[in-house]
Amino acid sequence: MANELILLDTWVSPFGMRVRIALREKGIKFEYKEEDLTNKSDLLLKMNPIHKKIPVLIHNGKPVRESGIIVQYVDEVWHDKAPLLPSEPYPRAQARFWADFVDKKIYDTGRKIWTTKGDEQKSATEEFIGYLKTLEAELGAKPYFGGEKLGYVDVTMIPFYSWFHAYEVSGNFSIESNCPKLMAWAKRCMQHESVSKTLPDPKKVYEFILQLKKRLGIE
Amino acid sequence: MADQGEVKLLKTWSSLFGLRVVWALKLKGIPYESVDEDLTNKSDLLLQYNPVHTKVPVLIHNGKSICESLVILEYIDETWSQNPPRLLPRDPIQRASARFWAKFMDEKVCTIYDYGLVIALPSMWQAFTKEGREQEEGVASIAENLKLLEAELEGKKFLGGEEIGIPDFALGWLVNLVPVFEEILGLKIVDEERHPSLSEWSRRISDIPVIEESWPPRDKLVTKWAAIRDHFLATARASSG
C-alpha cells in the first residue's frame, strides 16, 4: 500500500515547523497543504473536529493531531531513519520532559511579548529570557539537546528561532546578548537542511505578527 | 521478574496527578515508597529532584528523577513493559490517539498546578471559583468538553479501548473529584441522562480495587476545595469593591 502523507499546516506556525523538520530529517515525502486559518478547509474540520487546529498529519487517510504527538508518531513509524527520541526509557523521559517544558513556556510567554506593552511586556520578556536560560543550562556543553545529533527537543524548540527577531523587536531586547549559547545552538541546527528549508525568514514572521496585531485590534 | 530497583513517588495526599502514577505502579505490581509532600513547605528531596518546576508528582527510580505525570506514565510503561497492563496501545495510530486524549484531559478539562492554594484549572476553574454569569460560562464550557468525551467513550469499555490505559488515568480524577465539586457548588456536572457512557465508564473505573482504595478521603477533599472556592470568591468580591 502506498504511503500517503498530507500535512495540514501554515507557513508561520512553529508547531507545524516541528513536523516538517521531522519528516525532512527522515527523508519522508509528504504533501503540504497551506491552511487559511481565517477560512478553515473542510478537510481540516473533518480531520481535527475537536481543536480545529494545525498541524494535522494525515497518514493513509488517518489523522494524527498535536505537533509533539505527530513528531513521536513519525519517529515510531519511521524509526530506522534519523531517530529523534533516544532508545532507552530514562533519556526518552528526559526528552519528553524538556519538550513539554518548551510547549508549556515558550509560545505563551513569547506571545505576551508581542501582544502587550509597558510593565506587562517587560515582565513577559524577563520571564521569557529566564526560560531560555533554563534551556541553555540543560543544553550544557552538548552540541544538541539530543546529544551529538538533532533530537526530539531540538526539533521542538528550533522553530521558535524564526520568531526570535519578532520577539526582540516587539520587546526591545536582544536574545543573543542574553543567551549566546542558545543562539550558537540555533545556528548549528540551521546548518541542517531539514531546518533551514523549513524555517521562514524571520523578517516575514515579524511582518506577519504586525498584520495579526492589526487584525486582532492590538496596538 | 527483572530487578526493578528502588522506586519512590513524591506526591501530596490529594494530588490527582500523583494518583495517576499510584494507579500505574499498583496495577503493574511495582513496589514503591510513597512520600506525601507539604507544598507550602517543600522538602529538600522535591527541590533536588524537580528543580525546574518544584511540583509533584516526581518518580525517583534508582536515584534518577522523572517529572510530569504523563511523562512518568510513559516511562513506567516502557521500563516495566513486561508487567501488564500495557498503558499505551501497540499500534502507532492508536498510541497517537491515546496521547491526544490524555493531553486533552489535561489541557481542556482540568489542569491543576498544586502550589498550596494557587491552582489553575481551565474549564473547571471558572465554574468553581466564580459566581453568576462567569460561573455559568465555566459550567457551559465544561458541558461542551464533556459532550466530546461522551462521544469518544460511546461503545468503548475504556478510553483506550478494551483495556485501561493512559487516557483513562488522565481522566480518572473526574470520578473522585466531580462529586466533590457538585456537592460544593450545588450543581450537577455529570449525570446519567446526558452522559450515559461517561457514567458507565466512571462505574467501571471505580470497580477497579486499586483505584477505588486509593481515593483521598472525600470529607477531607470537600473541606479543602470548599476553602479554595471561598478564598477565591472573597478575593473577587474584595477587588470588585
From TrEMBL, chain A:
GO terms for molecular function: glutathione transferase activity. It is an enzyme of class 2 (transferase). GO terms for biological process: glutathione metabolic process. Its EC number is 2.5.1.18. It comes from the Eukaryota. It catalyses: RX + glutathione = an S-substituted glutathione + a halide anion + H(+). It holds the Pfam family GST_C. One of its GO terms (cellular component) is cytoplasm. InterPro entries: Glutathione-S-Trfase_C-like, Glutathione-S-Trfase_C_sf, Glutathione_S-Trfase, Glutathione_S-Trfase_N, GST_C, GST_C_Tau, Omega/Tau-like, Thioredoxin-like_sf. Belongs to the GST superfamily. This is glutathione transferase. It comes from Linum tenue.
Automatic annotation (TrEMBL), chain B:
It comes from Linum tenue. Residues 5-84 form the GST N-terminal domain. One of its GO terms (molecular function) is glutathione transferase activity. Keywords: Signal, Transferase. Its EC number is 2.5.1.18. Transmembrane segments: none annotated. It catalyses: RX + glutathione = an S-substituted glutathione + a halide anion + H(+). This is glutathione transferase.
